[in-house]
Write a structure and sequence with these properties.
alpha+beta; 13 helices; disordered N terminus
Length: about 650
């Protein structure tokens, strides 16, 4: 009887195996594969005749059957097409970086395929595989104007994937990418937002088998910025601001890279530089030298009063010098000064004497005229350069259509030709443009501290604890950190820690400069505020970190290390393993939540503040001890608290 059962089971098993093979063959007709390390990409024709791919890592699915293809004019490319491998080569690049590390190193395998359509036309599909992820793009030759009507590009994630996305209850969500970072199961994404199923990049995905996948794009030039529409079945599909009308491109169409960053842990995710590495190297003529691109912190009057006059900005220069900050950000209002250009020139002359550089604000609509290669923009930048200012903050692009992306690149190019730095606001997230144009020293595309001043604020601690593993993975962000006088639900130590956990080569500090310089309870941290860098040589994320709950990040500059901790949730005791330190001893200056002290009364500290129910805050306390890499430190975090440790090499 047992023998009969075994034979029957064997027959059933063979039948199921044959059926599975048939299903697999029907799904993966003309399949080809690409492998690097433990990552494999399968490229094939799906059952509907469309090109498709899958990604496996460690033999587990990261992306299930996801479609490939592009719509140009009236043609749907990638349907019933033949796939031919044209070339395979290794890509290696190293380049200096102003951000999480001093140098980025990237190695990947590039596969170039010829895609032959049924009508005989051909185009190219390129894939790159590296230890940091998978990326692909479409290249379609052509003469004259080609109209891109959309893409088939889709991304199907495994069931039970946890997706981190940014949310805002208004159409500003996709105009400025300044939403609060929240999470939901992949199955909920079509309906989770009141603003509809379209999400902006990036999306950070916690995979059910462990590890992370982050969806992004790289090298966004001469194209429209991609959003992702949740279409059900655990799938996102490429979406563009222009909709069915599409957008025109002259000559060859080269799409940005569609990226799936892969990481086993949050340290690998935060250190991922694939997006920047897929951008072209800087133009050697425009960037013959980059000595004029100098990272540093900036003072900013807006936190204390939105509209400024000349005398206030004159005083801000003095405060920048007193704080050892490199810059002063002159925001909206300077163009209403009497004899504005003469006044700005006078201010820049005074600032130069003090060793301070001036940035000036401009609304994008006043210089966004493409005629004669953006001649009006060039005239404005010439005037800025003549004043002695070192950079511009350009605001309110409010979208990522092809025309806006062209404006952004024109601004970066023309500013670089005049050796001016650029700060973008009211814009989409970074796609690594700062590698090609290192004069982009920061950009918004982030829900930053200014929201604490707004009706929809303040920021949550969870949002802050998510940022290093979501928005900041693809590039710097102008969060404008440090808000003691209006910290919302967070503590003062939490606010201090944002100076380490977040990064921006041009780091615009929000808090009132006089409050920093004259408030007695701030003085123990004043030297830290003055000396904390804005770019780093090395970054290390502690394994206890968890998106939206705890961000514990150490960053090195020269021989010194800085540790920042952001907590969201109940009070917690955190063990800090100091083995990341170098040999020898360090003096550890430790700033932690002082839960036993009287809470700080915030009433009246900032006339611009809207404190709501958060009218008090937990102060910080400072201690010091000698440590080495064998040491373990214990840090006590208050609810929504934080900590900072500066390790000074002896």
């Amino acid at each position: 009887m047992k023998k009969v059962k075994y034979q029957f089971s064997l027959v059933i098993g063979l039948f199921m195996l044959i059926s599975a093979c048939r299903n697999s063959n029907s799904q993966k007709e003309t399949a080809t594969s690409m492998t690097r390390g433990n990552t494999t990409v399968s490229l094939f024709t799906a059952t509907n005749g469309q090109l498709a791919f899958q990604i496996h890592k460690d033999q587990k699915i990261v992306l299930d059957t996801s479609l490939l293809g592009i719509f140009i004019d009236e043609r749907q490319l990638g349907k019933n097409a033949e796939i031919i491998l044209e070339e395979q080569k290794e890509i290696k690049t190293e380049y200096p970086l102003n951000g999480i590390k001093s140098e980025a190193s990237y190695t990947g395998n590039q596969y170039t395929y010829i895609i032959s359509e049924a009508d005989g036309s051909q185009w190219n599909l390129e894939f790159q595989l590296s230890n940091e992820g998978v990326a692909y793009r479409y290249i379609v030759s052509g003469n004259g104007t080609q109209n891109v009507k959309g893409e088939e590009s889709s991304f199907k994630l495994p069931s039970e994937t946890k997706v981190w996305y940014f949310e805002r209850d208004s159409d500003w969500k996709l105009k400025s990418h300044a939403g609060e970072w929240l999470s939901a199961d992949i199955s909920e994404m079509p309906t989770v937002s009141k603003m509809g199923p379209i999400q902006g990049l990036t999306l950070t995905c916690e995979l059910p088998q462990g590890g992370y996948a982050l969806l992004a794009e790289a090298a966004l030039y001469n194209y429209s910025g991609m959003r992702l529409e949740a279409i059900g079945n655990n799938t996102f599909k490429a979406n563009f601001e222009e909709g069915d009308n599409g957008f025109a491109i002259n000559g060859k169409v080269t799409t940005p890279w569609r990226c799936i960053l892969l990481a086993d842990n949050l340290n690998d995710l935060a250190n991922n530089t694939m997006v920047a590495s897929l951008n072209p190297a800087p133009d050697p003529e425009i960037f013959k030298n980059t000595d004029w691109i100098i990272p540093g912190k900036s003072v900013w009057h807006w936190w204390s009063g939105k509209y400024v006059d000349y005398n206030e900005e004159h005083d801000m220069v003095d405060d920048a010098q007193a704080l050892n900050f490199a810059y002063s950000m002159v925001d909206e209002g300077w163009e209403r000064w009497a004899n504005k250009w003469e006044s700005v020139t006078k201010l820049c002359d005074y600032a130069e004497e003090k060793g301070v550089g001036i940035f000036v604000w401009k609304h994008s609509k006043e210089i966004n005229f493409p005629e004669n290669d953006y001649a009006l923009m060039g005239h404005f930048l010439d005037s800025v350069k003549q004043t002695g200012a070192v950079g511009v903050k350009v605001d309110f692009m409010n979208g990522q259509s092809k025309s806006i992306i062209s404006f952004d690149e024109a601004l970066l190019r023309k500013a670089a030709e005049r050796q001016l730095m650029v700060n973008f606001h009211g814009c989409q997230q970074s796609s690594g443009e700062y590698r090609t144009y290192p004069n982009e020293v920061t950009r918004e595309g982030i829900r930053g501290l200014e929201v604490n001043h707004m009706k929809e604020g303040p920021l949550t601690a969870s949002h802050n604890a998510a940022l290093p593993f979501t928005r900041y993975v693809t590039g710097h962000g102008d969060y404008t950190p440090l808000g003691f006088t209006e910290p919302g639900e967070t503590t003062w130590a939490h606010q201090l820690a944002t100076l380490v956990t977040f990064y921006s080569p041009f780091n615009c500090i929000a808090e009132n400069t006089q409050f920093l310089l004259k408030t007695k309870s701030i003085q123990p941290a004043l030297d830290f505020i003055k000396t904390v860098p804005s770019v780093w040589d090395e970054t290390f994320v502690f394994p206890q970190s968890k998106i939206g709950e705890l961000a514990a990040i150490a960053r090195r500059t020269d021989n010194n290390w800085y540790l920042g901790v952001l907590r969201s949730g109940p009070a917690q005791e955190l063990q800090i393993d100091c083995s990341f330190l170098g040999d020898g001893e360090y003096t550890a200056e430790i700033f932690t939540d002082d839960t036993k002290a009287k809470r700080i009364n915030l009433e009246g500290l900032n006339n611009e503040a809207n404190l709501r129910q958060w009218n008090t805050a937990v102060p910080f306390k400072k201690s010091s001890e000698t440590v080495s890499k064998e040491k373990t430190l214990t840090v006590h975090l208050a609810e929504h608290g934080g900590a900072v440790i500066k390790f000074i090499k002896k």
